Amino acid sequence: MAIAYIGIGSNLGNREENCLRAIELLEKRGIVVKKRSSMYETEPWGVKEQPRFINMAIEVETDIGPGELLRILKDVEKEIGREETFRWGPRVVDLDILLYEDLILKEPDLEIPHPLMHERDFVLRPLCEIAPDKEHPQMRSTIKELLNIFLRNRQSSSKP
């Protein structure tokens, strides 16, 4: 069985319920949720003019490969009501594979580890809550170390 980490976000409708519904639907599809983070209310990333997000992360155990897992995540997004809009736009739910074991994969529709996770507070905070010592397979830093680097960089860039 493989261990994977999935990021969950929502900024339309009942955001908390959308995140919990995603977990429920993943479990109904045989994906075992081992850990879940708290929910964090966060600023939008990329496109600022939209509602705030609720973000969280889950650790799952599965015998499903990464490509099939991605297909299941997309099916769950559609079942909850996600419609395609524009990049980084508002969404009922967003599910992303952040890490899958120590796999490094780059395909047109799937990149693992998630290519921007180390630049996103809304990914690192919830992931650090459930997997602080998990090592990023490319950066060779733990999630806790990546979060600390992110926070230091943000703090130094906000100084006059």
Task: Indicate the structural class.
Answer: alpha+beta
| Domain module count | 1
Output the helix-strand order.
Answer: EHEEEHEEEHH
Radius of gyration: 15 Å
CATH class descriptor: Alpha Beta
Cα end-to-end separation:
49 Å
- Number of H/I helices: 4
Count of individual beta strands: 7
The portion of residues assigned to helices is 25-40%
CATH superfamily: 7,8-Dihydro-6-hydroxymethylpterin-pyrophosphokinase HPPK
Q: Judging by the overall fold, what is the CATH architecture?
A: 2-Layer Sandwich
Percent range for β-strand residues: 25-35%
Major sheet, described briefly? 5 strands, antiparallel
Question: Poorly predicted ranges (pLDDT <50, ≥5 residues)?
Answer: none
**Broad shape:** globular
Overall mean pLDDT stands at 92
Look up the CATH topology: Alpha-Beta Plaits
